[in-house]
Amino acid sequence: MTVDNLLLLLLLLLLLLLLLLLLLLLLLLLLLLLQLLLLLLLLLLLLLPPLLLLLLLLLLLLLLLLLLLLLLLLLLLLLLLLLLLLLLLLLLLLLLLLLLLLLLLLLLLLLLLLPLLLLLLLLLLLLLLYYYYY
């Protein structure tokens, strides 16, 4: 293993980290879009029939679960990359900063998931109240 090979491997890991970062940013945008869609669903609650609304809500819940699974997969990938980076000790500072940024983005992603779950629960509650009173 020469120094050139180590630098090439390190560069490859750096590119993988940047790719993960882009993927996380895409997930963040998707979550924001999902939250906007859910707010729109809350506004349409009075206009739509309850059965259609229930179907839309179940679809959104399924999408949210898929996003959570994707997030967990990204976390596992990130941990594997972290283990690989611990084996290589060159340019550690820059890569650790990138990993820290990725972890912060994951935390932000999880924080964005919380209001979405709360909105879904609120929508379910409103639907149950609708069925109860009508």
Low-confidence stretches: none
Rg calc: 21 Å
- Structural category: mainly alpha
Count the domains. Answer: 1
Task: Report the count of strand segments.
Answer: 0
For the record, give the distance between the C-alpha atoms at the N and C termini, rounded to a whole number. Answer: 73 Å
> Strand-residue fraction?
under 5%
| SSE string | HHH
3D shape: rod-shaped
Helix content: over 70%
Average pLDDT, rounded to a whole number, is 80
The major sheet is characterized as:
none
Q: How many separate helices?
A: 3
Word description of this protein:
By secondary structure, the chain is an all-alpha fold. The chain has one domain. The protein is built from 3 helices and no strands. The chain has helices at 3-43, 50-87, 92-133. Helix 1 packs antiparallel against helix 2 (50-87). InterPro entries: MetI-like.
Keywords:
134 residues; mainly alpha; rod-shaped
Topology:
Elements: H1 3-43, H2 50-87, H3 92-133
Short description:
With about 130 residues, the protein is an all-alpha fold. It contains three helices and no strands. About 90% of the residues lie in helices and about 0% in strands.
